[in-house]
């Protein structure tokens, strides 16, 4: 199957509240998508308020674009179809027309639906000149034709939500079809703190745990890096307990793990660093 996931809204399991920071992005997506999908009758009069057919989320890896797409489907009460550009083009060379038609007719039946196209640059990247594979070109053209061909009734309830780390690689024709482009940025200190609070809400932390110091110590970390750092830090008390048991020659004592300290996170930084050096200015 070339679709990587199809999930009904009540089974997605991610809501906007599970995403730390990105408040403006969440608000914009709510206005552009959730409201029109939940209340299409409010958007069917006149010409000014038109539901948006295509949105591009762009920004560094690990900043929560996939998470936002899933949570948006929950908030909008829409089914969620996910496809990945690179898998599509590599695995399905030659079947462009059939697959694209199947995808869009499937989506029409499932509406309201959000079609999430991750790594959209691989599927709909700039024309590759003489060396571009014929199948890639056909896939892109078929996809755009099917997208344009959505009947207006369907277009209110089918949204293409695309994500990329490489917006500058996108074809102009694709950019035009994604009239709303939303930058999903790396979190600043304040926002790192919000994200950390979500990840650590269920953990046993030392009293007075200094979230602010941890946020200051993680400049440049994406949400995904922060998650990996928290996992590495949470492992340290476990490791200590195992070493203690080994020293004493006992195993499986009723384990009582010590609370996590700020220092666990600082030490874990040597294992999990900031993964991206991203220059947003190159994306204009
Ligand atoms: P890529 O461009 O590499 O596909 P992405 O922007 O789609 O990355 P996600 O896959 O959404 O990033 O994020 C990876 C993981 O990082 C998520 O599953 C989540 O655990 C965590 N994460 C990232 N940003 C946030 C955030 N703002 N709040 C909570 N968790 C986050």
Automatic annotation (TrEMBL):
Protein origin, superkingdom: Eukaryota
Domain (AAA+ ATPase): residue spans on this chain: 51-188
- Name where it's found: Mitochondrion outer membrane
**Signal peptide coordinates:** none
Q: What is this protein called?
A: AAA+ ATPase domain-containing protein
Q: Which organism is it from?
A: Cocos nucifera (Coconut palm)
Q: What is the lineage of its organism?
A: Eukaryota, Viridiplantae, Streptophyta, Embryophyta, Tracheophyta
């Amino acid at each position: 199957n070339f679709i990587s996931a199809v999930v009904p809204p009540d089974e997605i399991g991610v809501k906007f509240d599970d995403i730390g920071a990105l408040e403006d992005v969440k608000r914009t997506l709510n206005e552009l998508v959730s409201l029109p999908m939940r209340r299409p009758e409010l958007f069917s009069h006149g010409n000014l308020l038109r539901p948006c057919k295509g949105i591009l989320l762009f920004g560094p890896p690990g900043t929560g674009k996939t998470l936002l797409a899933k949570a948006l489907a929950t908030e909008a009460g829409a089914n969620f179809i996910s496809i990945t550009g690179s898998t599509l083009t590599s695995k399905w060379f030659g079947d462009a027309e059939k697959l694209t038609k199947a995808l869009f007719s499937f989506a029409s039946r499932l509406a309201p639906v959000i079609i999430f196209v991750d790594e959209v640059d691989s599927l709909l990247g700039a024309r590759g000149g003489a060396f571009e594979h014929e199948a890639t070109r056909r896939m892109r053209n078929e996809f755009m034709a099917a997208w344009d061909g959505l009947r207006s009734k369907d277009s209110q309830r089918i949204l293409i939500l695309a994500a990329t780390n490489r917006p500058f690689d996108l074809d102009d024709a694709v950019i035009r079809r994604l009239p709303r482009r939303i930058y999903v940025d790396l979190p600043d200190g304040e926002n790192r703190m919000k994200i950390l609070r979500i990840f650590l809400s269920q953990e046993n932390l030392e009293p007075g745990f200094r979230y602010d110091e941890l946020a200051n110590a993680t400049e440049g970390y994406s949400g995904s890096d922060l998650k990996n750092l928290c996992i590495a830090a949470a492992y340290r008390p476990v490791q200590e307990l195992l070493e203690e048991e080994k020293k004493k020659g006992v195993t499986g004592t009723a384990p009582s793990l010590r609370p996590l300290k700020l220092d666990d996170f600082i030490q874990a930084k040597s294992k999990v660093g900031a993964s991206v050096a991203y220059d947003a200015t190159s994306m204009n």
